[in-house]
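Q: Structure for this?
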Amino acid sequence: MRTAWRLSVAAWLLWLAACAHPLPHAPAPDDAATGPRSLLLVSLDGVHPDDLARGDTPNIDRLAREGVHARWMSPSYPALTFPNHYTIVTGLRPDRHGIVHNTMSDPDLGRFTLKMRDAVGDGRWWGGEPLWVTAERAGLRTAALAWPGSEAAVQGVRPDRWFLFDETRPIDERIRTVAGWLSEPEDTRPRLALLYFEHPDGAAHAHGPGSPQLRAAMREVDAAIGRLLDELGRSGAAARTDIVIVSDHGMAEVPAGQVVAIEDMVDPADAVLVSAGQVLGFRPQAGREADAERRLLGRHAHWQCWRRHELPARWHYGRHPRVPPIVCQMDPGWDALPREHIARRPPGTRGSHGYDPADPSMRAVFVAGGPSFRRGVALPPIDNVDVYPLLARLLGLQPVGDDGDPRALLPALREPGEVADGTGTPAH
Ligand SMILES: [Zn+2]
């Protein structure tokens, strides 16, 4: 009994020493006992760090406590859903991957909105190289349950298994599907799985951040993640599954009445509206450029507008041809919509995002756990372009997108290995 106890203490000390002194070279992410590791990337749309550790999310909180979490994660500009989901899987700012907004125009491709299934499924909109394309080309199976971009054949490649986004798909069905994938035998099991939950975003938009409805949505998705972790534990997959939970952006409260009519910002005869909401794009009408600029450019009561090439440098935005000539940024807590939309808006407090990524309300979350991660690590704030190099490393892939810093998240890893100077990580 005593000997066994001593042995287990010795084993524990050895394990602790291994954690404290990581090996100089990152080994291949395989385990002789359990086979190759899989990576599950989960998005909780619209979740702010304040939504965690509030008593609503015991399962995510436990994962954070026993694994790794960042104090917060800054979204890329614009702090909108599609641009940021695609940044997380490409390692590129929206200005480089081309999903520059949820609503865009392109001279060759026409119009893109979240609800236009043909556009969303058209690979020509999606630039860069999402991680699942790199993985598939390297012979690793991938599966996505409705991650933005995964419905399109990007460079002619889709995840091995992919689904059209369907908000009516029950949460339990999503969990069963993903737990099933990760529990499959090695020859069919995806090495990269992606899972998306839109529920927190929907509740916070309709009722505001911190609302009872948002908190109920948080409890619902957290319980789902708890069931997923239980399933992985039961099937034995937990020992070889790394889990990264992120959000795309936070959420700001928009008090009743804090909405500007776009017709009051500029005369539609002077400029065409490309995108509304919080990040507005305008294209001056031919011959009316000077009038449009005179009316729009500069600081206003609740917003500010720039020529696209003169936007603040820290936003890394304005070069892609899909960015309209004039971009207006609303102040946190303010929306801008066509007057007819304002008339249809339900009264009361609501929530919006798409504000300056530096505004605390826009902060997103990063939580990770699993065999590749250290235990009990609290990271300083991170930038969401830094997540992609970590994901590539976990899969043993050479990163393609290079806007992130491959060193930023190394302290999260049990075996961080080496990083080549400036350009990425060595492939394994
Ligand atoms: Zn979102």
